[in-house]
Structure of OB-fold nucleic acid binding domain-containing protein:
Amino acid sequence: MGFGNTQGRLLSWITLILILVNSCSSTKILNIKNNVDEFKNQKVTLHGEVIETLSIPFVRTGVYQLDDGSDRIWVLSAKNIPERGNQVMVTGTVTVGVELGGKRFGVIIKETDKE
């Protein structure tokens, strides 16, 4: 009798963990780039390493390139730009065709939140 109850609890815990992992997971950059129309104007969360930064003097806006191991994407930020090598989790909107400081970016994330 006790064994069945333990199995039920274990199954409940496994289900809960899977739900939490899926809800906290980030979108892969390669998936965004391969499905731009599906992700355009959608809010996504990404996690990766900052590999390049660009900022415009006297303007708070800047961009940084994020690499999640699947691909790279530029993130447009009006906040502090993280340093190269930092691991960040960023939430933002997928946007296409942004120009900043004379440089044109194809698919870019407009940051709304960063950890």
The two ends are 47 Å apart (CA to CA). Residues 27-114 form a domain with the OB fold (Dihydrolipoamide Acetyltransferase, E2P) fold (CATH 2.40.50.140).
